Amino acid sequence: MIDKEVGDKCTGCNMCGDLCPKGAIIYYKNEEGFEFPKVDYDKCIKCGLCIKKCPALNKNIYKKMSPEPYAAWAKDDEIRLKSTSGGIYYMLAEKFILDGGYIAGSVYSDDYKSAYHVIGNTLDDLKKIMGSKYFQSSAKGIYSKIKELLDNNERVLFCGTPCQSAALQSFLNKEYKNLVIIDFICRGINSPLAFRKHIEELEEKNNSKVKLVHLKNKKTGWQSLATYIEFENGNIYHEDKTTSPWIKGFVGGGGLYMRNSCHNCNFRGLPRISDITIGDFWGIKGMKDEDMFKGISSVMINSKKGKEMFEKIKENIIFERRNLDELLSGNPAVLYSPEKNKNRDVFFRTLKDKSFSEAVMINSDNRKSNIIKKILKKRKILSKIDIFKFIKYNFISKNVVRDKNVYLIPYKGTIIDLDKTARIYIKGKNLELCTNKLKKSKAEMHLRMEEKSEWHVNNGAQIFYNTVIEVKSKAILNTKFFSANGGTVIVCAKEINIGEDVMIGRNIIIYDSDFHQVFNREMEAINYPKPVNIEDHVWLTSNITVLKGVTIGRDSLITAQTLIRKSYPQKKVIAGKATGEVISECNGWSRKRIKNM
């Protein structure tokens, strides 16, 4: 059953307990404070529902349309300043309540040491739900309660993590018109045990119980990521991202206490699984200092229901349509899971004997900023690639079949025209299209593949700007790592094979067909396509044409202005404006540039 199948993939969504018809699933907390399911096998009837419906084990979650991105914030400054971002969740939930609906979201426990999901229909309920909690909220029982309301034709607005949103849809097993789902840009879910230890340490230092917690408080501005806590004795704790151990361990420390499943999350990417996705609009450009202080929400409208809901609050918010590239560049968590901190497991062992702040300090001080560097590197790449094509061909389209963590990278200017039956198989390394452009250049690279054509990419490729690759109907293009410079044209009508470490210079044409028929006296075609084979480590320098039916042997070099219309053995230098002739032996060549004398 579920406790034997899910393992570390478990997101802690708590849905399986609501789903079990016999109430056979309870939860236990592991040593890190995260909940996992446990089956009472005396009650279990082995129906298998817990496995069939588990969102961590199945990817049959209904996805929405491509998002419409906005920057937005509440006109009411009081709401905006009390919210974690720009106050958009509050405005959506307030409108839902005023229209007679229910809201479901996370609230703190009375002692502020844990969190759980509740359902409410008053503005007081909303005030408890508003604001991010930044550690795992228990959702036990919430799915059944939501279904009961929906079945009674009540309207419900649910807000939760992407994995909780997926769990709700899997539990309901159908689309409800009276349900709107909001998720948020989630970096990862932190340990309730770690948060409890943090609060208990502060209570001990202040000799008083906590009476209010406000994470990401804006006393010193939205970007300060400050933690604000009030104690019963009147003491105030206020620390920003530079001094707060909680923020250091979560953001600055690269995720010291995230749930294991968050490091390989199945619920990131686009399209989203919710109707609306909200978050902070980190990295936004051209905004006033006042707005950067008060907070700006990013909003992705992902469905017709989401759009209708957003329309209802427009008169009470400031909003403007923004570019998805800009939103993603500041929020890599939309697409990428955070790397697991190498000290994560040690942190939890340290926490057994040390205070929370000591455990953070011990496991963060000697940690290099590898994760931050990787995120910055990804942001730099995101600014150069065509985000829509990247998402489409790597996460949505069936045209691309790729290894895990290997992608088709379409830099801006990539034009792709693929028949629905065409396939690109990518293994080993990324396939990069339209690379190496000059800044501000609008140069293009064209890729066209007709019906049932295939391109097998092994170990990646770098295709420069001003190149054309066409794979005709039922043809196969097989490539190992190669680079193709500007002006390259590769047209495959039958089969073209390009070996490992092949360098294709400027203005190279490679054809395996004449593309138009030539007949003999009996009107029979005499010029059928023939495969082209370019073996490993061949350098085609510039202004070269390679025609059908030829093989160029490995470690060879073709000089400029050469027409290749017959095969050549390995390790040759080939030159000539007509049929190439062997002019000398070739003892090797290198990609390294020739230095000046």
Structural write-up:
By secondary structure, this protein is α/β, with parallel strands linked by helices. It folds into 4 domains: about 1-55, 2-Layer Sandwich (Alpha-Beta Plaits); about 70-190 and about 265-335, no CATH class; about 190-255 and about 345-380, no CATH class; about 385-585, Hexapeptide repeat proteins (UDP N-Acetylglucosamine Acyltransferase, domain 1, 3 Solenoid). The chain is built from 17 helices and 34 strands. Strands 15, 16, 18, 19, 21, 22, 24, 25, 27, 29, 31, 32, 33 and 34 form a 14-stranded mixed beta sheet that branches. The chain is elongated, with a radius of gyration of 29 Å.
What is the name of the CATH architecture of the largest domain?
A: 3 Solenoid
Question: Would you count the extended β strands for me?
Answer: 34
Task: Summarize the main sheet.
Answer: 14 strands, mixed
Please write the CATH class name of the largest domain.
Answer: Mainly Beta
Report the radius of gyration as a whole number of Å. Answer: 29 Å
Q: Fill in the CATH topology of the largest domain.
A: UDP N-Acetylglucosamine Acyltransferase, domain 1
For the residues shown, what is the average pLDDT? Answer: 91
Counting H and I runs of at least 4 residues, what is the number of helices?
Answer: 17
Low-confidence stretches: 365-373
| Termini gap | 72 Å
Structural class: alpha/beta
Number of domains: 4
- Binned, the helix content reads 10-25%
The portion of residues forming beta strands comes to 25-35%
